[in-house]
Specification:
This protein has 273 residues and is an alpha/beta fold. Helices cover 46% and strands 15% of the residues. The radius of gyration is 19 Å and the shape is globular.
Length: 273
């Protein structure tokens, strides 16, 4: 039996084939779910979400995740379109204007910072609050947001996105308590390996860090496909008691101090210096 058979959902953030949300949508479809795809109007123009929707027989409803009015309409339309309340939601939304504009962490434009915070972090609270107030979630549903280890450790070029991810994870814990009490809905974040996506590749020095993380991790970097599989598991009834967690899906990177591969590489560099 398909593990999402009969479930209904809402997926934010599928931009193109590289997107984790895109792969989650493909997997959710294969596992029997029906769902709505959503992204900001500008992302719909830039990306290929309509192409994805056509392939998997889904509907696209544009919405600005920073707009409460848009979100209220989105949840209302999704429930009506799918024929009932939702069983899962994926929040895969993130953007730093400071990074896009080449501003260093020590030279932020605070208007850019606030905009990035609204898009990347506060939007998660708005999504949850809209689902809460509109009573859009079925009991025992699951809500997942994507995060990154820069919420706990310093990665200089990750810039203000580090604070955004830390806030995102805190929202999951706080709202997870309330949603769990009222509806047994669980809320978790996945701290994913550096992943080659359109958004991730915009971070300064991404290729170097991707290779570093891959060599540091005993299992190597977790791929976008693996992350999508993990999202599906969290959406399913197999994880009914998992909530308010930030789960590291990173091949062991978060718990590794140093790896033999990195020692060998550094030693080789030192001897040839």
């Amino acid at each position: 039996m398909k593990i999402l058979e009969g479930k209904r959902g809402l997926i934010f953030g599928a931009l193109d084939e590289k997107s984790i949300a895109w792969k989650v949508a493909q997997n959710a479809h294969e596992q029997g779910a029906k769902f709505v795809l959503s992204n900001a109007p500008i992302a719909l123009r830039m990306g290929k979400i309509n192409e994805l929707a056509e392939k998997i027989g889904s509907r696209v409803i544009p919405a600005d995740a920073t707009s409460v009015d848009d979100l209220n309409k989105l949840f209302d339309e999704s429930v009506k379109l799918l024929g009932g309340k939702l069983d899962f939601v994926l929040h895969s939304i993130g953007m730093s204007v400071n990074v896009r504009k080449g501003r260093e962490y020590t030279d932020q434009n605070y208007d850019f910072t606030i905009k990035g915070f609204d898009v990347s972090a506060l939007s998660f609270h708005k999504v949850l609050q809209s689902a809460w107030k509109n009573e859009s979630m079925n009991d025992y549903g699951s809500i997942v947001a994507l995060s990154y280890i820069a919420a706990q450790k310093t990665f200089p070029d990750y810039n203000d996105m580090a604070e955004n991810k830390a806030y995102l994870e805190s929202i999951a814990r706080s709202f997870g308590y309330h949603f769990g009490n009222r509806n047994k809905v669980r809320i978790n974040t996945i701290s994913q390996s550096p992943t080659i996506t359109t958004a991730g590749s915009g971070v300064k020095g991404f290729d170097t860090f991707f290779n570093y993380a891959d060599k540091m991790s005993p299992l190597g970097n977790a791929s976008a496909e693996d992350c999508a599989n993990f999202c599906i598991a969290l959406f399913s009834d197999l994880t009914k008691s998992v909530t308010m967690q930030n789960i590291f899906h990173d091949g062991g990177f978060s718990n590794t101090g140093i790896s033999e591969d990195l020692i060998k590489e550094f030693t080789s560099w030192y001897l040839n210096y």
